[in-house]
Amino acid sequence: MASRGFERGHICMSLRRYRIFGCITLAVLLAGCDPSQKKVKAPGDEPQATAPVKDQAVPPTPPPPPPPQPTQKQRQVQQLVDQVEKAYADGDADYRKGRLPEAKAEFDRAVDLMLTSGIDIKSDPQLQDEFDHIIDQVNALEMEALKQGNGFVPKVEPTPADVASDITFEAVTPDIVAKAKTELATTKSDLPLMVNEYVAGFINFFANSPRGHATLLHSFQRAGRYKAMIQRVMAEEGVPQDLIYLAVAESSFQPRAVNAKSGAGGMWQFMPHGNYGLARNGYVDERFDPEKSTRSYARYMKYLYDQLGDWYLAMAAYDWGAGNVQRAVQKTGYADFWELYRRNNLPGETKNYVPEILAAIIIANHPTQYGFDDVTLDLPVLTDTLTINYSLDLRLAADLVNAPVDELMALNPSLLRMTTPPDTSFDLHLPAGTAAVFQDRVASIPEGRRNAWRYHRVSAEDTLDSLARTYHVSTAELAAANQLQTGQSLSGLEAIVIPLAPAASPSAHTVLYTARRGDTLVSIADRFGVSLDQLRRWNKIPTGTRVEPGRRLHVAEPATLRKTKARHRTTITAADLNPSASRAAKSGSAHRSTSSSTGKTAHATSSTAKRSSHAKGPTRTQK
Q1: pLDDT tens digits, residue range 149-195?
Q2: Residues 609, 329: contact at Cβ < 8 Å?
Q3: Phi, psi of 387 (to 5 degrees)
Q4: Half-sphere exposure of 563 (CA within 13 A, CB side)
Q5: Collapsed DSSP state (helix, strand, coil) of residue 513
């Protein structure tokens, strides 16, 4: 990621001291005497004998009272403030150097230290000021990052569907249609392909429009990373290979793509709600896992085809929802995508969806004829995969395999935080060929410390003291963790472990949070280890990231009451998408949204209406 030179404010959160300086002016009034005048003595003014005055001891000035000793709470607050400032300063230094993953981890730690301290922030002015200042600073940096990408993750490019959303077919001539039909005659596909003016319009746009050509070119290039994996999964699931090109319309083969309007995410753009056999929690969102989401996509497409009996209708249902497609079939009597198109019984996005995919398939099969002969596929993503059952910091994993931490993040796009889940297994993806060295080196670190400790390869100039300063640990702790003497040389050692303290994590008992000045939904979601989609859903916030100070938000899933389902409604379970699944799934949700209707038999005349419309498939909302 490019380094970002953003202005930042320096944290200076000590108590403000005001000193009042005053000047005391002494006015000395001198009474003047006229030397020419004699003093007139009054009666009784004659000198009288007086007793001698004895010297009197002047009592010494008592010393000022000692300043009051800070209370235990004040010491705790100051210690916490020092830790928070240190974490923020480390994050700020990483941010200035463009190391966004490291910066994000330190910012998380600064905020979490306060939230999990056990001290009531609102009751202490110093801590309240510190909290507000840290949040303001982090939010300012986050907003700067958002201008260049998706916060602390790389910017997602627009898909061909995005740039073709306003395409018109006025430029489609008979020659363009004829050429496309000629190419179709030699196109090998396991999907039934056809060319009409709509498909030819997209072919023309991608072949001859500079923006359309560039976007599809980048999509084809990125496909190289996952093409072999997708083809393998589709073969295993028994669906046509050319269904890979739905990813052109959905995400342009970007596994971390997120639709800002609907919240759909991942390469195949699954909605945040619904059950597709993909785990979602505060640590992991498997919609972003390329292989797991591809398998769910293949099973779902097979399910839609079984319901509708036609691949074009199945593709339309993936975009619009099976229930909506079935109702359109019932309304017109035609179970034919093109007939529904011509009769204007489809929304605009779905009208474009199928011909756009068909155009991509035809161009991919004839790249030279359409000006895509310069496509250089990205190298396939090759990994070693280990299933681990402990919490692991990605920075430690990067240390162990000698790889940049952002490479580990890219190989594990489903991981939402810098650490793997503590209470469940996780499929950790490592650079190809590094599994053995990882397992050998990680064995030197206690399992319970792998979410915090680091691994350092020793260089000639390293000493215990220099490494203790670098990693901000004591020399004694560093020596003890490595079974060394305090002054012992590191000569002859390949590496040592660094016993860092674990980052604070939000309390499992925290369920409500009161928004403060400077908070956004993005910062709150990240602070509590939940996704933005979850936070919105739990608090019934449809869109946006702003939140009013003082609003109480659920930061853990609230309890919900189940309502009795209406009669004659069909439930789609995980077993429908995966017949071998042994667990009972929740009620049928869809790729985009949940939709069902009463079961009425379609009176379609087309031979493709093979299925009754009693069964309702999952649907999704329009992007």
Answers
A1: 444 555 677 777 677 765 655 567 788 888 888 888 888 899 999 99
A2: yes
A3: -90, 115
A4: 3
A5: strand
